[in-house]
Each structure stands twice: as structure tokens, then as C-alpha cells.
Amino acid sequence: MSTYKEDVVLGHADEADGIDEYDNRLPRWWLGLFYGCVAWAGVYLVWFHVIEDTSQAKMYDEEVAAAEVQWPKPTAEQALAKAATPEAIAAGKVIYQSNCIGCHGPELKGGIGPDLTDGTWIHGGGLADINKTVSEGVPAKGMLAWGPILGPEKVAQVAAFVHSSGGGS
Ligand code: HEC
Q: Ligand 1: residues within 6 Å at CB?
């Protein structure tokens, strides 16, 4: 048996800082909205996570992939070419003079190591090729791996210097 009566104050204002309360039935429009939202949450959950499988992580990955197509990362060659500024080449010359002259000669014309200006290359004359040869060396032939000794930045500089000295392709 319902003892429900409309607009009756529950009468505990003294416990609640003077705030009075009714216990009226919720309006139909409000209940409709509430159950509608509950139902929609279920639909949305199934649609978003199961049918479409659209997670934010997935959307992010897709955007990153699209961005990589639109703005491709520079190749190793392009990145090196960009770093090969006149200042870097000048710095590379100093590194060459203190590390490489002994085998490749002051004019890069060779000696123990090959001529680096004649346009003939054993390991390739592109900037990235030279960078790789200098970095990894040819230990079996007496060319040191300079990467661990000089570090990548100085290797790139000396490679830029060698590349710019006439023989580079
Ligand atoms: C101890 C002697 C020695 C020193 C020092 C040396 N090189 Fe070499 N380098 C060689 C030899 C020998 C080769 C040939 C390797 C081969 O036959 O594959 C070579 C090869 C190279 C090549 C590849 C040439 C080609 O035809 O593909 C490059 C570039 C090069 N050296 C750059 C350098 C640079 C830059 C330095 C200084 C950081 C350096 N080298 C120091 C001995 C040396």
C-alpha cells in the first residue's frame, strides 16, 4: 500500500542545516531522460567499443600514421644533408686534420687509406654512405670505426667535410 502524498515536506530540516525536502514522484520527462541515457550508454558502448572498435588510442595511431604520410620523415641522407652546414663542414675539416690525415693524406688524396677525392668509392660516395663507413669503419682493412670514438655528431661533420671535398656523389 502506497502512502505516497504529493508535496509533503519530509521534516528533517533541523538535521540538514534548514534544508527541507519533498519526496515527490520524479516527473515523467525526467525519468524518460534518465532511462534514455542509460539505454543510450549501452548502445554507445557496444557501437563504440565492439562494432566500430573506435578507441582513442586507435584514433591517435591512425592520425599519426596519416601525418607520417603527409609529412614524411626525412631519410638518413636528407637529415645528414640538412646538418651539413658550412659550419659543420668547417668543424669536420678540423676533425679530419687531427684524425684522418695519417692514412688519407692532408689533401684527402690517400696513402694507407684510399683517395677520397677521386669519385671512386669502395663503400659508396653518398653522404649517408660516407657517414656509415666512417661510423662503422672497415676494421678488416685498417679503417677504424670512428662512431664510438668521435660520436655521431662529429662523424656527421667529418663525413660532410669528406663528402664536400670533391669526390662525394
Ligand atoms: C689507420 C688508417 C686510417 C685512418 C686513421 C682513417 N682511415 Fe679511412 N680508411 C682507411 C682504409 C685502409 C680504408 C679502406 C677500407 C677498405 O678497403 O674497405 C679507409 C676507407 C675510408 C672511407 C671509405 C672510402 C671508400 O672508397 O668507400 C672513408 C670515407 C674514410 N676512410 C674516411 C675516413 C675518415 C673521415 C677518417 C678520420 C675520422 C679516416 N677515414 C681515418 C684507413 C684509415
A: 96, 99-100, 102-104, 112-114, 116, 121-123, 130, 133-134, 138, 141-144, 146, 158, 162
CA distance 92 to 168: 15
Report which DSSP code applies to 46.
I
CB distance 95 to 158 below 8 Å: yes
Q: For the chain, what are the domain ranges?
A: 13-70, 76-167
Class of domain 76-167: mainly alpha
The predicted-structure confidence for 51-76, as pLDDT tens digits, reads as follows 888 888 888 999 999 999 999 887 77
**Statement: residue 141 has pLDDT above 90:** yes
C-alpha cell at 152: 655521431
